[in-house]
Amino acid sequence: MKMSRRADIDAALHDARVAAYLPGQFVGQESFMTADAVLALARNAGIDADTRVLDVCCGIGGPGRLVVRTFGCTYSGVDADAEAVALARELATGLPCTYSVGSVPPLPAGTFDVVLLLETVLAFHDKRALAAAVAAALDPGGRFACTLEAGMPLTPAESAVMPAAETVWPVPLAEFTKTLADVGLSTVSIQDDTATQLQVVTALLAQFTAHRDRIAAALGTSFTDGLLESHRLWRDWMSSGRIRKFALVARRMTKP
Ligand SMILES: C[S@@+](CC[C@H](N)C(=O)[O-])C[C@H]1O[C@@H](n2cnc3c(N)ncnc32)[C@H](O)[C@@H]1O
What we know:
Blueprint: H1 5-20, H2 35-44, E1 52-56, H3 62-71, E2 74-79, H4 82-91, E3 97-101, E4 112-117, H5 127-137, E5 138-150, H6 156-161, H7 173-182, E6 185-192, H8 194-210, H9 212-219, H10 221-240, E7 244-252
Parallel strand pairs: 1-2, 1-4, 2-3, 4-5
Antiparallel strand pairs: 5-7, 6-7
S-adenosylmethionine (SAM) binds at residues 29-31, 57-59, 62-63, 79-81, 84, 103-104, 118-120, 123.
């Protein structure tokens, strides 16, 4: 059977990812977060067995499966990539997870106790539209739990070298928390995960470089060059302080 592009990528990068993370820390995430960081953020957001979670930009769903297995919460994932959602569904067989395909905003209909958004805030140029959609999907007291790529917007020179730069929109932390407050989301916890994520991206870069020929045979030279270049840039930007990575929880206030 022909695999989808997303399944091809997952398969081709799997061994390098397993080797890059410390034991137990790779759970199918497509990011620099460790399993421990996913669980810490979920705990900070108060996820338990009674929580209705919406995982926005769930990708192939690794962090979501970890959260469902750990806390027994009710879980829905949404992603714009139909192939990612198909793979997420397949990988979650036997778990009480539902998925939909959709480009956010808008969010899927309904209200939730927690909206998760892991490692993808940077893809949204209009953070206010994103934040407003998240706030509207939360009941009062509900929580938005996300990771943030914090820093000034890319310069033209930085955009020129970053693969898929049209999906890379960092924002200063204070500007982001103000945007959240403007739509009725009050930030209640901020954790600086830069040091841990720097270790992960450094290890991923080393493993992708070691597996380069095999990855290129499966996915092509151009994809592989972009993969390595983007990881080099993230490593350099995190080690220099150009970008910091935060895990953040904001609570929906009764009135905006
Ligand atoms: C880096 S992956 C992160 C996946 C997952 N959250 C994780 O941590 O493993 C980013 C995902 O966001 C999805 N995405 C990006 N922009 C989106 C949008 N506007 N609406 C829905 N999905 C989006 C992409 O298709 C991709 O699957």
